[in-house]
């Protein structure tokens, strides 16, 4: 048995072990890379060189910038503004989580961080206005998925960077195509959910009265849930979000103006002048921290280091696998002769099934090295990347991953058992349907 085959078996074992309580995939991937390198005779310095320093800067920079915006109240102010714009119309209230999720990820917020913000909003609105918690959660997470492939988002940047490293030639229009593909997918799922919700009564019709906290409403501050924390089984009632969104401190006008200016500067410089988003985010976070005199360590403490470790560890291990020739062997196994399109469909299903309980970004990063042979065989490079990315993320709405844990933790205790079953059913159905629809809709783009 070659070391390439061993590396594949170890990778499968790593993903399977994510079902074990207390298992950390990022730590395990780094450890596995070290041990596999020793067994394969690869020097430790070479293994360390596979660590993705560019992704580290990207994630830390972007999340530090949004941590600063959240600490000074600007994000709360922006969310408050969004809620006021709907004018009390219940259908539009149901759409607020979708819009908030799409905006957050489109401008660069990590999916886990966006979910931590959107889930309490969605579940809080559902409890206050008496519409389905499942519908609220699906709309919120679908919004997050809609913006994941924007030029500023981690998925969009990852897709472009990995395509370049793997030799997949993307046209100059690829960033816009990725964004449009994500938005079209999100809008289609959102429209279907709203149509079903309005016909079944899951979304009430008419206008809502003014949102004011009541004595029976849960405490309204959003939970500070780190990525990967499972939903609590009992204990204190979770803190949902509506009153927070309506009444949260919005910071001073000076802080808001400076923060919005920094966000716009990062968008303009990164999109218009092709400057590095990660370093721009780090610079913006530093400017905000110094100008607004933030408490030392507050911004750094809000960076999701678990996600940084996860992506860094997996990409280090994947780099070693490429060095050992594992992906070349996998490509040969997955290739369906004379039908690269069906090979892409099979890869989409593998990504979807694996993403059900594992990190979608980790699965996407792991599966991307399998695309070059399919592109060489005639599959559209933009369509292949887009189909694989959407197949990986559309199964995220289930209770077994980070997203599901954050949704359940934001729900009222009495609603959790039923919501768990609904999320599980939705997730299992999405495994069957989502990869095929992503492949059918986008593989030819």
Radius of gyration (Å) = 22 Å
Low-confidence region ranges? 210-250
Report the order of strands and helices.
HHHHHHHHHHHHHHHHHHHHHH
Strand content: under 5%
DSSP helix fraction: 55-70%
- Profile the largest sheet: none
Number of helices: 22
Based on helices, strands and strand pairing, what is the structural class? mainly alpha
Oligomer description: single chain
Number of strands: 0
Coarse shape: globular
Our measurement of the CA-to-CA distance between the termini, rounded to an integer number of angstroms, reads 39 Å
**Average pLDDT rating:** 79
Structural notes for this entry:
Helix content is 70%, strand content 0%. By secondary structure, it is mainly α. The longest helix has 27 residues, at 174-200.
Give short descriptive properties of this protein.
445 residues, mainly alpha, single chain
Q: Secondary structure elements and their pairing?
A:
Elements: H1 3-16, H2 25-40, H3 44-49, H4 53-71, H5 74-85, H6 90-106, H7 111-129, H8 133-147, H9 154-166, H10 174-200, H11 242-247, H12 253-272, H13 277-291, H14 298-301, H15 305-324, H16 326-334, H17 340-355, H18 360-367, H19 371-376, H20 381-393, H21 402-410, H22 416-442
Task: Give a brief rundown of this model.
This protein is 70% helix and 0% strand. The protein has helices at 3-16, 25-40, 44-49, 53-71, 74-85, 90-106, 111-129, 133-147, 154-166, 174-200, 242-247, 253-272, 277-291, 298-301, 305-324, 326-334, 340-355, 360-367, 371-376, 381-393, 402-410, 416-442. It starts with a helix and ends with a helix.
């Amino acid at each position: 048995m070659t070391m390439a085959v061993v590396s594949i078996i170890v990778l499968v074992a790593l993903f399977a072990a994510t079902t074990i309580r207390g298992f950390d995939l990022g730590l395990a991937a780094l450890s596995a890379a070290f041990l596999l390198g020793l067994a394969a005779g690869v020097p430790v310095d070479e293994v360390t060189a596979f660590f993705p320093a560019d992704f580290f800067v990207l994630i830390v920079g972007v999340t530090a910038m949004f941590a600063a915006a959240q600490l000074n109240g600007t994000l709360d102010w922006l969310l408050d503004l969004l809620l006021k714009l709907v004018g009390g119309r219940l259908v539009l209230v149901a759409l607020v989580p979708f819009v908030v999720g799409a905006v957050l990820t489109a401008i660069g917020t990590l999916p886990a961080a966006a979910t931590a913000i959107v889930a309490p909003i969605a579940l809080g609105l559902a409890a206050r206005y008496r519409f389905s918690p499942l519908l609220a959660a699906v709309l919120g997470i679908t919004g997050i998925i809609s913006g994941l492939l924007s030029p500023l988002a981690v998925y969009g940047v990852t897709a472009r960077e990995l395509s370049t490293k793997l030799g997949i030639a993307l046209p100059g229009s690829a960033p816009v195509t990725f964004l449009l593909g994500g938005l079209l997918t999100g809008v289609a799922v959102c429209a279907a959910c709203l149509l079903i919700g309005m016909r079944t009564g899951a979304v009430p019709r008419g206008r809502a009265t003014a949102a004011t906290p009541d004595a029976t409403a849960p405490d309204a501050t959003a939970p500070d849930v780190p990525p990967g924390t499972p939903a609590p089984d009992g204990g204190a009632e979770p803190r949902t979000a509506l009153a927070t969104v309506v009444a949260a401190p919005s910071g001073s006008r000076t802080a808001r103006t400076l923060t919005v200016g920094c966000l716009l500067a990062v968008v303009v410089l990164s999109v218009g002048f092709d400057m590095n988003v990660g370093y721009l985010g780090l610079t913006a976070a530093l400017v905000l921290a110094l100008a607004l005199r933030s408490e030392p360590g507050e911004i750094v403490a809000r960076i999701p280091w678990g996600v940084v470790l996860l992506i860094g560890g997996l990409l280090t291990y994947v780099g070693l696998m490429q060095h050992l020739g594992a992906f070349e062997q996998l490509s040969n196994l997955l290739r369906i002769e004379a039908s690269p399109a069906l090979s892409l469909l099979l890869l989409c299903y593998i990504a979807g099934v694996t993403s059900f309980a594992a990190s979608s970004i980790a699965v996407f990063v792991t599966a991307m090295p399998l695309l070059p042979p399919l592109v060489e065989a005639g599959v559209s490079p933009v369509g292949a990347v887009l189909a694989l990315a959407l197949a990986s993320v559309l199964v995220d709405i289930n209770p077994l991953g980070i997203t599901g844990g954050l949704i359940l933790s934001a729900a009222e205790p009495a609603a959790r058992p039923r919501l768990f079953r609904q999320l599980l059913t939705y997730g299992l159905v999405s495994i069957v349907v989502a990869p095929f629809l992503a492949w059918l809709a986008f593989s030819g783009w």
